[in-house]
């Protein structure tokens, strides 16, 4: 039932269409389970299965000289996984985001040490940027990394860290103080068994996935743990988000497509006042709005992905537009789906009830919607000629 006509859009090459079709079949066969129970166990299993069947290979470049991340493939995979299982999308996406700074800025040794493992599901990755007092305000990071003899010592806290508690390593952004604010940050690889790293608290959210607050106390890392140069942390974080932010929009798109599928099935199958629900014009109005929002979101998501794949150094504006529009539109689409399902729409465990919980955090993480508006406005205003 799902509309696949977008795969004919000129953003895609035949290899993208092939991956999308193959994953559709794979997801139907492998992602039927919806009650995850123990979320840590479920997430580990999903990483392992996605690795076994080689989907994680798309989250980071291989060893070939010209290999790089293809954002269109990432986006297609995220939208397909999200349509079947929010947790499967999460497991896939975090391997890419967590390993992203290593993929994009790591030394050969760092890439060889970690990427073959994240790409096969043998190591779980996490991206540790946010802190209790610096979520949106990234430049305000307080976690410190002091040079100490041969290496660095980290002290501070990170919070809302996805995969916190199950990750094998964390890419941690900390203040090294080369300059004030954003220019004094650096990125480090901290292994989960480092005695200076503690999982201070496990966090529960409305759509469960592994999440934690981390505490670093005299956490010693070797010089080889530094990614790129000292002082480059902000650039590393923003460039990584620039690649992966578009794919948050793609996940939202997958949730929205699933909501429309469920709605079409419901509207055709349920009879009210002697006719299918789909015959009511108000319901048709909702369905038209949903389809329109989905196509508009898809155009923005794949425009951003295509622009990056065509070699643009940064796609800050395109990625912000894709993420902002697709996540906000998906929320509206899912809300309409819940409405059309009546009481069933809010019944625990119903697919549209699950989607209603799944979508919410996407409008907050990797840059809240309001922050994306600021980014877009700044970019547009910068074109004004004085
Ligand atoms: C489920 C989940 C998973 C996450 N995973 C990770 C992860 O893996 N790694 C990681 O580092 N972080 C992660 N985060 C953290 C996430 O990135 C932050 O929550 C987000 O950046 C917002 O920061 P905050 O929560 O401190 O809110 P605040 O920064 O306090 O912002 C609150 C609100 O203020 C408004 N606001 C903020 N700044 C502006 C502005 N400039 N202009 C206008 N309005 C503004 C927005 O409405 C915003 O939602 C995750 C969060 C969630 C909920």
Summarize the structure.
The protein is α+β, with helices and mostly antiparallel strands.
Task: Compile the SSE list and pairings.
Layout: H1 14-30, H2 39-52, H3 71-84, H4 86-105, H5 108-118, E1 125-128, E2 144-147, E3 152-162, E4 169-175, E5 185-191, E6 197-202, E7 211-221, E8 226-227, H6 233-269, E9 271-272, E10 275-276, H7 281-309, H8 316-340, H9 351-360, H10 369-381
Parallel strand pairs: 1-4
Antiparallel strand pairs: 2-3, 3-7, 4-5, 5-8, 6-7, 9-10
Helix pairs in contact: 1-3, 2-4, 3-4, 3-6, 4-5, 4-6, 6-7, 6-8, 6-9, 7-8, 8-9, 8-10
This protein binds flavin-adenine dinucleotide.
Flavin-adenine dinucleotide binds at residues 127-130, 135-137, 160-162, 205, 211, 361, 364-366, 368, 370-371, 374.
